[in-house]
Amino acid sequence: MKLGGLYTALITPFDEEGILDVAGFRKNIRSQIDNGVDGIVPVGTTGESATLNSEEHKMVVETAVDEAEGKIRVIAGTGSNNTSEALDYTQHAMDAGADAALIITPYYNKPTQQGLIKHYTKIASSVDIPIVLYTVPGRTGVNIQPETTIELSKIKNIVAIKDASGDLDQVMKVLAGTEDFTVLSGEDYLTYPILALGGDGVISVASNVAPDLMSELIHSAREGNWDRARELHYLLYPLFKVLFVETNPAPAKAALDLMGLPAGEPRLPLVGVSMESRDEIKKVLEALKLI
């Protein structure tokens, strides 16, 4: 299964009481569909999976599948630092009708590479759903080394990796060492170079805010229109950077709020961005004519 294209790492909107805003979540998904994304990723890091309880997590996945209605793909975030819990979430995503599961490396535990192999092998052998590996060492404290990714790619239903390591050398090793394996950027600002190296797309934070422009960037590159893709890369570069001016997803939520879209504040221990950061985000949105 090839999962190339643009996938939005959806924020999870909350109301003023911090309760899941299901209607707002559905509205955001419809906006994503209307603006040409290839798929959505609910309950990833950007979706604040770490502060959703199990019932909320599963509700978000079910809602995403229902609202997508097969028009776009749904890659459900199902990772955990507990292999048993990750397997439960992955089984649920499969039963709910998700197209694939995004499984982050176990955080805090800091498993060895052999531990990662056993973790992913256990999950992959227990379900019949395509699995996307997710390495983001800045968040989890552990990286999936390229040799480990290459080994795991030999498992039939491990079909892709979201690489947010920030290491292009690692990306190149994976691309060179695998066949029929999808490599997705996990960093918006590295998407263009990863596509140029042979990558297949991105799981994007920025496409919460500018899905139409991100979709054009991705598809321009994949169709060989590198001049237009590069132009869009530099146009969007300030957005890529400002959305990480504070801890994700607080800046993305501030941007959506400024645009009048459902967002709400992040859940503790994260907080909303400072006024200085909000002003900075506003300037970037104005420059892109998004507000």
Looking at the structure, the CATH topology is TIM Barrel
Please identify the top-level CATH class: Alpha Beta
- How would the global form be characterised? globular
What oligomeric assembly is this protein in?
single chain
Instruction: Give the H and E element order.
Output: EHEHEHEHEHHEHEHEHHHH
- Cα gyration radius (Å): 18 Å
Largest sheet: 8 strands, parallel, barrel
Number of domains: 1
Helicity level:
40-55%
Please characterize this protein's 3D structure.
46% of the residues lie in helices and 13% in strands. The protein is α/β, with parallel strands linked by helices. The chain has a single domain (5-223), classed as TIM Barrel (Alpha-Beta Barrel), CATH 3.20.20.70. Strands 1-2-3-4-5-6-7-8 form an 8-stranded parallel barrel, surrounded by 6 helices. 49% of the residues are buried. Helix 2 (54-68) links the parallel strand 2 and strand 3. Helix 1 packs parallel to helix 2 and helix 3 packs parallel to helix 4. It is built from 12 helices and 8 strands. It has helices at residues 22-34, 54-68, 83-96, 113-124, 137-140, 146-152, 168-177, 191-197, 211-222, 226-242, 250-258, 275-287, and strands spanning 5-9, 39-41, 73-77, 100-104, 131-135, 158-163, 182-185, 201-204.
